[in-house]
Amino acid sequence: MFKTGDPVVFHKEKKSMKPSLKAWGVRPHSGGDGYSYFITKYWRVITADDSKVVVATRGGKQLEVNADDPKLRKANIFERVFKKHIYSEIPV
């Protein structure tokens, strides 16, 4: 499914007292002491097999993600065109 060099999108769930401006799906915690939300991450595939995908981040980190994680998907054509500047910064 994933190949080396593929641009991918990952929806990372985060929790904090103050969501960033890029946050979406913001939900308050039940106690009112913070928020849960998602941040969209743009990564490139370094290696992939049937069970795991190793990706490179903009900051140069390498992360391992399950290949069947529903929060991970290939970038669509819109993201490939309009986020090209982000993907071009990521070394593979």
Structure description:
With 92 residues, the protein is mainly β. The protein has one domain (7-89). Helices cover 13% and strands 46% of the residues. The chain is built from two helices and six strands. The chain has helices at 77-82, 84-89, and strands at 7-16, 24-28, 35-48, 52-56, 62-66, 72-74. Strands 1, 2, 3, 4, 5 and 6 form a six-stranded antiparallel beta sheet that branches. It is globular. The model has no long low-confidence stretch (mean pLDDT 94).
In short:
It is built from two helices and six strands. The protein is mainly beta and 92 residues long.
> What is the count of distinct domains?
1
H/I helix tally: 2
- Which regions contain 5 or more consecutive residues with pLDDT less than 50? none
Q: What percentage of residues falls in helices of 4 or more residues?
A: 10-25%
Q: Gap between N and C termini, in Å?
A: 18 Å
Q: Structural class of the helix and strand makeup? A: mainly beta
Oligomeric state of the chains?
single chain
Radius of gyration: 15 Å
The strand count comes to 6
What portion of the residues fall into strands of 2 or more residues? over 45%
Shape: globular
> Main beta sheet, described?
6 strands, antiparallel
Order of helices and strands: EEEEEEHH
Give the mean pLDDT: 94
